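How a chain folds remains the central question behind the approach discussed here. The record that follows shows the chain in one-letter code together with its fold in token form:
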Amino acid sequence: MYQQEVEVISSYIAVSAVEVGKHLYWEIGGYKLHGQVFIVSWLVIIALLSLAFIGTRNLERVPKNLQNFMEFVIEFLQDIAKNQIGEHEYRSWVPYIATIFLFILGSNWAGALIPWKLIQLPEGELAAPTNDINTTVALSLLTSLSYFYAGLNKNGLGYFARYVEPTPVLLPINILEDFTKPLSLSFRLFGNILADELVVSVFTLLVPILIPLPVMILGLFASSIQALIFSTLSAAYIGEALEGHGEH
């Protein structure tokens, strides 16, 4: 019986070690880092920082060209935060919501627009950081930490009163909800981006000239929508946490 249990556990461990595709890993301090994700993520971050620096280098009272575009983007992101969090408390959360939106949008577009497959790596291949579950889970956990911080910062320990409202019977469901929020955020983003890249790859192999182009354009639109959904839901969760549960 004991031998059978050992065999079953060993089989589970073997299955959990199976990977889909090959990946480039870096060994740093005994830890494995996903090289593909780090490379493209830093390229996206550098591109965003460069755009922000160039667009705000010579500010004018009457905005033109890139400054005008940058102000439009900021106003758009402010509206997301304002509509979900509320007019009185949204300003302090604009940097977080804007960063989440721009990073996800840049990552999604990097995977849809740039032919990473042309760059040869020792193992694996470059792709959008958001088609890796580790990236989307990390972003979702950041959102979870943010709305817990928002609720505790405003309401103190009274924030936890929300778990027994409107009745203590809902305590398990309310606790479970806090686990499902990051799960739904991460798997929605990961699944959509991975599916889009797989569809484009299949069409490119089957019909390499005309068909992939409209699919890629549709992928850009879907990538933008996914960035909007993630940032909007993040703002909504923060706004929910900021409600005055502890004041009742």
